[in-house]
Structures are given as C-alpha cells and as structure tokens.
Design brief:
This protein is mainly alpha-helical. The chain has one domain. 65% of the residues lie in helices and 4% in strands. The longest helix is centred in the last third of the chain and has 34 residues. This is DUF3040 domain-containing protein. It comes from Streptomyces dengpaensis.
C-alpha cells in the first residue's frame, strides 16, 4: 500500500499510469468577472437603470456562487485524491 499522490509523483513522465492516477483537473475560477459584473450592476443602478443594474449585479453574484461551488468541488476531489491509497499488487484504489 502506498499513498496515491506519492505513487503518482514517482511515476516516469512517459508512463501511461500518470493519466490514470492523475490528480483532478484544476478549476479555472474567475472571481474577477463576478466582481466586475457586480460593480457594473451598481454603476447601472446609480445611473438610473435600476432594473438592468439589479439584473447585472445579481447575475454577477450567481456567477460568483457557481465559481465558488466549482472550487469547493475541486478542493474536495483533491483532498480525496491526496488521502487515497493504492495497492501496488493489484493497483486498486482505497
């Protein structure tokens, strides 16, 4: 039995097992887009477009929440991957 993360790091670069046991793909979180949308929504609201500004600001908040949920799922998957053990005899993951 060996820690999966350590086993994956010890594999040579050309090993086909590197893809099989690779860590989860990182999430491309763009919180700046959500922040920019909220700021634009506030700017629209102050310039007179209340409904449009509110819609843009809420859209930015929803986008930020979706990004945050994706980051949390990635962090949970990465933690599971780092805790996983691999049997070197049968290559089963535990």
């Amino acid at each position: 039995m060996e820690n999966l993360a350590h086993y994956w790091k010890s594999l040579p670069a050309e090993s086909p097992l590197r893809l099989r046991y690779a860590p989860p793909d990182e999430v491309d979180a763009r919180y700046w887009v959500a922040l920019l949308a909220v700021a634009a929504g506030i700017a629209f609201m102050t310039s007179g477009g209340i409904l449009l500004g509110l819609l843009v600001a809420v859209g930015g908040l929803v986008y930020g929440a979706v990004m945050h949920a994706g980051v949390e799922r990635y962090q949970a998957a990465l933690a599971d991957w780092q805790r996983a053990q691999i049997c070197l005899a049968c290559t089963g993951r535990f």
